[in-house]
Each structure stands twice: as structure tokens, then as C-alpha cells.
Hints:
It is built from four helices and no strands. By secondary structure, the protein is mainly α.
Amino acid sequence: MVSLGALSGYTFGLYGRLLNSYPAKSLGELWEKINGRSSSWVISLATLTFCFGGALSYSILLGDTFSALAQTAGLQGLLMARSLWILLVTSIILYPLCNLKSLLALAPLSIS
């Protein structure tokens, strides 16, 4: 974890130095200024893949958790199916959160 944290810190520092040298408003725009427009699709694909992977991870984790809770509560049949809970959590909770333009609505629930 320490290694990943150090690598992440170094990467963010590197982004900061690059943005100081090449003023840009996004990582895609920075890539275009350094490497050219022809390969800018790489950043878009990497961002999409990273976000999809994160959302998929949350869906699976929460679906497994709710499935285990349903079994503990004594629910039977389809109500304790893992796939049902993954679909429900994804469509009712995570998908609407992913579509928020601003996370300001979640501020009252924040610890900080």
C-alpha cells in the first residue's frame, strides 16, 4: 500500500509539473499538447476503462454484501441471488450517482 501511495503521489506531482509547463484544462488536453491529437483517444479509453472498472468493482462488492445480508435475514429463492442484488444496486444506486453533474448533493453525508 505504501508503494502504491508513493507511486500515486509521484504521478500527481508529475501531472502538476506538466500542467505548469503546458497549461491545459484536462488530462486529454495535456496529452494533445505533448503527444499530438492523433493519439488522444488513448487517454479517453484509459479514463473510460478506469471508471468502468471502479463502478463494476463497487457493483460486485455491494451486490455480494446485500446478497449475504439477505441470506442472513433468511430470505429465500431469488431474493438471495447475488446477480439480482448486483443488478439492483447498479441500477438503483450506482447508475444515478454516476450521472450526477455535481456531487454537492452528497455533501451533507460527508464526514469532512
